[in-house]
Amino acid sequence: MVKTFKENLDDVKSKITAIGNDLVKANELILGALKDCNSEQFSQARNSIKNITSRTDEIDNTIIKILALYTPEARDLRQVVAYFKITNEIARACSNTRSFIRGFTDVCKDLDVDTINEYTVPMQASTVKAIATSINMLNIDDTDELQEMYEEVLIEENKADDLYEMIERKLVAQAENCSNSFEKFHKMLRALRKSEKIAGRAISVANLLVYIKVGGSLHN
Predict the structure, then answer these.
(1) Cβ–Cβ < 8 Å for 206, 156
(2) FRET partner for 189 with CA separation of 20 to 30 A, picked from 15, 50, 105, 217?
(3) Distances (CA, A) of 126 to 108, 111, 156
(4) Using CA atoms, how far apart are residues 16 and 19, in angstroms rounded to an integer?
């Protein structure tokens, strides 16, 4: 029996949600690993987002088939287009997560515990909240609730931005007093920047989910 448009779209949403939940799990594991630079937990986080490219490619191919078979219009078309872009945002968030793990594990032991507890842990906590909320929005139909959740994502993304700026200033100040350790501080900031970017991907996903409901302009 040939699947209907709705069945195909529900299948796409289910697969996007599964990848999104794996992304949330990976970042939750990172949050736990940060407190004591736990290499085993960092490894578990990396394993949580394996084979993402093949999974997102499968979703994209399904979306292309939906467009070819059903030529959706109006809100249906908005939903299909938004899902296509959401898949890309989640894939990029997974890539940022892998880069963060790879970069941070190299320098984690060099970052003092006070800095981790004061800035890095809360920044990652905001990143986790932003991702988790945006993924939960996939299954919300009420426009007002969706808008409220979007605002929650925006708040957490702004927190992650602010905390990154704080830790950047602190590490730059430390680097100025340790001229022979510039490369180490540069690596730290480059890794931490990936965590902040993950929260940025979350707001993009949330924006696309609001777009499905209310229309308007697409924003990157």
Answers:
(1) no
(2) 50
(3) 19, 20, 5
(4) 5
Q: Which residues are CB-neighbours of 97 under 8 A, at least 6 positions away?
A: 23, 26, 27, 30, 45, 49, 194, 198
Least confident of 62-66, 174-178, 201-205: 174-178
- Give yes or no for a contact between 15 and 55, defined as CB atoms under 8 angstroms apart: yes
CATH 1.20.58.220, applies to 5-214: yes
Token pair of 118, please?
């004061």
Averaged pLDDT, 75-99: 94
The DSSP code for 11 is H
What is the rounded CA–CA span in Å between residue 56 and residue 35? Answer: 31
Instruction: Give the burial class of 7: count Cβ atoms within 10 A of its Cβ; 0-12 exposed, 13-18 middle, 19 or more buried.
Output: exposed
pTM (2 d.p.)? 0.91
pLDDT at 138 over 60: yes
Considering the chain, what is the average pLDDT of its residues?
A: 89
